[in-house]
Amino acid sequence: MRINMVALMVFVFCAIGIAQDEKQRMSREQLAEKQAMHIAQELAFDDVTTQRFIETYSACQQEIWALGPRPEIEPATEKEAEQAIKERFERSQSVLDLREKYYEEYSKFLTQKQIFRVYELEHQSMDRLHKHREHHEHNQKGHERPQKE
After folding, report:
1. Domain of 110?
2. What's 48-67 look like in SS3?
3. How far, in Å, CA of 115 to CA of 7, rounded?
């Protein structure tokens, strides 16, 4: 009987751990949709506008993700530094081109003030995400054990 109780407790703790892990780790697509829903709620869009906004916002995010991450290199030479700067310019221009493309899409169903507010809320959301990530990384570093040499 006692072994069954211990087995049950282990099972419950494992299930809780898995559920928490799944809850904490949303996919990028889920995160983008959640962010779009938050923005739509903040702006009090109707159901049709909300659905169209979520679809458009998610499509924009997917195109930005398709560009890949910004290269994080530490150039050793002048030539590498020049190349890194040019690559960043190219990526920044690609992101700007996408933002302009989706500005045109948003203009088809949102007012200019709504679009302005969308960008404000998106920026605030990104700031919170960066602060959360920095806080998480800082806490992770504080819990690492020093390595023995």
Report:
1. 28-126
2. HHHHHHHHHHHHHHHHHHHC
3. 55
